[in-house]
Design brief:
The protein is α/β, with parallel strands linked by helices and 349 residues long. The chain is built from 15 helices and 13 strands.
Length: 349
């Protein structure tokens, strides 16, 4: 089978796409191309994995009219380039995992009558996927509750990120200087980090002292210079980025993070207690609904950013460890879906 996979912008879109590509790689007869944006994280990440990568120059629409006029022209060029890639490669299937780059790719595939699908990671779908669902053959969803937003063939598969996390080797936290006898709290605000959250937790980190717990604070590459010299105890370590985050999550006892789709799928798969701080800056406030879904089911604790203080974070951590067994039992009772396998099986029908 020949497949084109498209996703761009953030890890929430890219990592599920890579999860499906890993499943496709199990059959050596399968061929695939990844189409992403020219200058976002996929342009560096995907080629390193030995996957053929094609780039499109395209940007999201903004309030700037001049930029939008320019981007409409780029969308047209991207559509033409995507059509050429599809005609040359002759795929059996084209699947998009989100990000504005998927729009011209899926529309070109639809025009050329190639079988198509999208995967929606969030509980509340984004605008691009809502539009594309009217043109693609199948929509794969991560939350059962998302089905009502789509009118085409909808298949509940879960998120391939979770399946990918289960198969990754657990990291040895002692290699980072942490004790094997203390609980590890991992603080990371998604693949790009969050300066606003980092600033709000500075006081907490500078005052953190515990005989039972240690903290790894991953700032994100863009924020590291601002936070690397915080005056913290030797129980707190600060780094800009960590390559094998899923492996590190396996070695952690609690994660404090944004409520992106990839993170949530990994939390559910790894039975990892969490404090979720949904980003208020994303489309349709979808991270709030992602986090609320877990909090309502007793699977996580949600702490909204406008309520985030040193004291509220400390109380949330204490509550999470107090309820640790209850939360883990509930996480363990959740059905673990072989998402990537389900998606590939549906694609081969």
């Amino acid at each position: 089978m020949k497949v084109i996979v498209s996703a761009g912008g953030t890890g929430g879109h890219i990592y599920p796409a890579l999860g499906v590509l890993e499943e496709l790689r199990k059959n050596k007869d399968n061929e695939f191309i990844y189409i992403g944006t020219k200058d976002r994280m996929e342009s560096e990440l995907v080629p390193k994995l030995g996957i053929k990568f094609e780039s499109l120059e395209i940007y999201g629409l903004s309030k700037n009219i001049k930029k939008n006029i320019k981007n409409i022209n780029l969308i047209r060029k991207s559509y033409k380039k995507a059509k050429k890639i599809i005609k040359d490669f002759k795929p059996d299937y084209v699947i998009g995992f989100g990000g504005y780059v998927t729009f011209p790719v899926l529309m070109a595939a639809h025009k050329l009558k190639v079988k198509t699908a999208i995967h929606e990671q969030n509980k509340i779908p984004g605008k691009t996927n809502k539009i594309l669902s009217k043109f693609v053959d199948t929509t794969f969803i991560s939350f059962m509750e998302s089905e009502k937003y789509f009118k085409n063939n909808v298949v509940y598969t879960g998120n391939p990120c979770g399946e990918k996390a289960i198969n990754i080797e657990k990291h040895d936290k002692t290699k980072l200087g942490f004790s094997k006898d203390k609980k590890l709290i991992l603080i990371v605000m998604g693949s790009l980090g969050s300066t606003s959250v980092n600033r709000k937790i500075t006081e907490f980190l500078e005052n953190f002292k515990s005989e039972k717990e240690e903290i790894l604070f991953i700032t994100g590459k863009g924020s590291y210079q601002e936070f690397k010299d915080l005056k913290v105890s030797n129980q707190v370590k600060i780094i800009p980025f960590y390559e094998n985050l899923s492996g590190l999550m396996k070695a952690s006892d609690l994660i404090i993070s944004r409520a992106g789709a990839s993170t949530i799928s990994e939390i559910l798969s790894l039975n990892l207690p969490s404090i979720l701080i949904p980003s208020p800056y994303v489309a349709n406030n979808h991270q709030y609904y992602n986090a609320k879904d877990l909090a309502d089911k007793g699977l996580s604790i949600m702490l909204e950013e406008d309520k985030l203080t040193s004291e509220s974070l400390k109380l949330s951590i204490n509550e999470c460890f107090k309820r640790e067994k209850e939360i883990k039992d509930k996480l363990n009772s959740q059905v673990k879906m072989p998402s990537a396998k389900l998606i590939v099986e549906e694609m081969t029908k």
